[in-house]
Amino acid sequence: SSQHGFTLWKLMIVIAIIAILGAIAVPAYQRYLQKAAMTDVLQAVTPYRHEVELCALEQGSLSACSEAQLGLAAFPPSTYLSTLSVDAGIISLSGQQTLAGLRVTLTPTLDRRAGTLRWQQRCQSEENNAALLEACRSVLRETDDGERP
Prior knowledge:
The chain has helices spanning about 10-60, 65-70, 130-140; strands at about 80-85, 90-95, 100-110, 115-125. The protein is an alpha+beta fold. Helix 1 crosses helix 3 (about 130-140). Residues about 145-149 have low confidence and may be disordered.
């Protein structure tokens, strides 16, 4: 009699190929989602950075540069932020959803002679998620004047 359809071996090979492709595609897609979410966070944080810079240059120090003095809303609209605060110029935020477990601190240093601020970023992950930390560092790298952590 002639055989019709797939044999068990052919079916197992197809399943193995699909599993291998899935193992490659899923982490890449998750990194893409995390990087996109970090870009959204960067857009939400940028007005706060600019206000801290203006405050520091006008006041001559960072101590007076907090949420209440900046004149911005206490919390920007972002799907991926659970908290955002500014205290003495230091911007702290926590992620949610795709960025769950992420904590970011943007710390400015005032150079009075040059009249500029130098930003240093620190990304931390509760689960030490390497992909999430890399997405954070790559998107926020411009906040530390081009120096990679």
